[in-house]
Amino acid sequence: MTTARRDTYTPDSLLAVAVTVFNERGYDGTSMEHLSKAAGISKSSIYHHVSGKEELLRRAVSRALDELFGILDEDHARGGRAVERLEYVTRRMVEVLTAELPYVTLLLRVRGNTATERWALERRREFDHQVARLLREAAADGEVRADVEVRLATRLVFGMINSIVEWYRPDGRDAGDGRLADTVVRLVFAGLRGEG
Amino acid sequence: MTTARRDTYTPDSLLAVAVTVFNERGYDGTSMEHLSKAAGISKSSIYHHVSGKEELLRRAVSRALDELFGILDEDHARGGRAVERLEYVTRRMVEVLTAELPYVTLLLRVRGNTATERWALERRREFDHQVARLLREAAADGEVRADVEVRLATRLVFGMINSIVEWYRPDGRDAGDGRLADTVVRLVFAGLRGEG
Fold first, then answer.
1. What domains can you pick out in chain A, each with its CATH number?
2. Is A105:A60 a contact under the CB 8 Å cutoff?
3. Which of A133, A166, B111, B192 has the most CB within a 10 Å radius?
C-alpha cells in the first residue's frame, strides 16, 4: 500500500470517481479492484466508505433520480395548464441531464441485472409515467395535436432528450447558456418548421 | 462436429445470425466460437463463407449504410423544396430503421476500435452531414425556425430517430402501419402543440 494515496475522500468525491469508472467500463465490468485503482486508495479504504460497488451504484442513480423527481415537485411543474407544466418539465429535464451528466448517463445505461438496477429501472419507468400523464392531461385539454399518440410521443421525446448524453460535453460549445434546453423545448413544442 | 447442423447457410442468412450475436454480446465481446455456436456450424464452415468476424461486421453495417444512403438518391429526396425533401428523408429514415432494425442497431453501436468500425463511423458522419445540409438549405429558404441552430437540431432529430432502436419491436403494436414514421415527422416538423 506504499503507492496508495492517503484516503481524503468524502462520500461525494468517492462517488464521482466510481461513476466515471462505471460509465467507462460498464457497471458489470467494474470490479472493486478497478475502483481502488481509479481512486488511488486501497479496497479496504473504499469499504470504509461503502459496503461495496452496489451501494455506490445505488447512491449514484439515486442522485440522478432525486434530481429528476425533484422537478415534478417544483412550483411550475405543479400549477397552471398541463401543456405549460409539460414544457417546464421538458426544459428542466434537459437542465438536470446536463448538470448531472455522469449520474444521468449511468442511470440511462442501467440494465437490470441486480436488485439495485431493477429498482432504478422501476423508478425511471415511474418518472416516465408521470411525464406521460402530464402529456395525456395536455391532450385532454386539447393543447396537444390529436394525431399524435401519447405513449409514442412520450417515448420519442424521452429518446430525443436522453440522446443528449451521447454527445454533450460540459465544457463544450453547447454548455451553459441554456440554448440546448431552449432548442429542445422549441423542437418538441413548436416543431422545426418556420413560417416559410 | 457430430452435433453441428449441416451448413445450409447463404451469405445473407449467416449474416443475420452474426448480427443477432453482435447486438447481444457487443462486437468486441463476440468470438468466432460464439458465432459458430449460434449458427450451429463449425468455425471452418464459417470461414468457408467469410474471412472472419470483421467481414461480417462490414457486410452488416454496409447493408444499413446502403439503405440509408439510398434514401438520398430517391426522387423525393432530390427534387422540390428543401423542407419537403428533409421531411421525406426523415420519414424514410424511420422506415429504414424499422425495416432493417438489427443492422441499423449494430451500426449505431459501432465504436471505432477496428478499421471497419472507423470506416462505418465515418460513413455515418457523412450521412449526418448530408441531412444537416438539407436542414441548412431549408433554413436558408426561410422554412425552418430561425431560433433553432442547425447543428443542434440535427443532433436532436437524429437522437430522437435513433432512440427508436431501443424499444421498437417488429412484431409489436407500433409495427407496420406507418404510424411511427408519421408521428416522428409530425413531432419534428410541427411540434407537439395543437391549436389549444
1. 11-50 (1.10.10.60), 60-190 (1.10.357.10)
2. no
3. B192
pLDDT at A1 over 70: no
Alpha carbons B108 and B65: distance in angstroms, whole number? 11
pLDDT tens digits for range B83-105: 999 999 999 999 999 999 999 99
CA distance B196 to A83: 9
Cell of A56: 455506490
Average pLDDT estimate for B138-142:
91
Half-sphere exposure of A54 (CA within 13 A, CB side): 10
Of A111, A88, A95, the C-alpha closest to B26 is A111
- Cβ-in-10-Å burial (0-12, 13-18, 19+) of B177 comes to exposed
CB B89 within 8 A of CB B71: yes
d(C-alpha A61, C-alpha B55), whole Å = 39
Give the burial class of A24: count Cβ atoms within 10 A of its Cβ; 0-12 exposed, 13-18 middle, 19 or more buried. Answer: exposed
- Could you give the 3-state DSSP secondary structure of residue B135? helix
CB B164 to CB A159 under 8 A?
yes
Q: Do B180 and A148 touch (CB under 8 A)?
A: no
Residues 6+ apart with CB under 8 A from A51: none
Provide the shortest C-alpha distance from residue A170 to chain B (in Å). 15
Is the CB of residue A132 less than 8 Å away from at least one CB of chain B? Answer: no
CA-based radius of gyration for chain B? 19
Question: What's at B47, amino acid-wise?
Answer: Y
Interface predicted TM-score of the whole assembly (ipTM), two decimals: 0.89
Interval A98-127 mean pLDDT = 95
Q: How far is B9 from chain A (nearest CA, A)?
A: 33
Q: Choose the mutation target among A98, A187, A188 for the interface with B, i.e. most B CBs under 10 Å.
A: A187
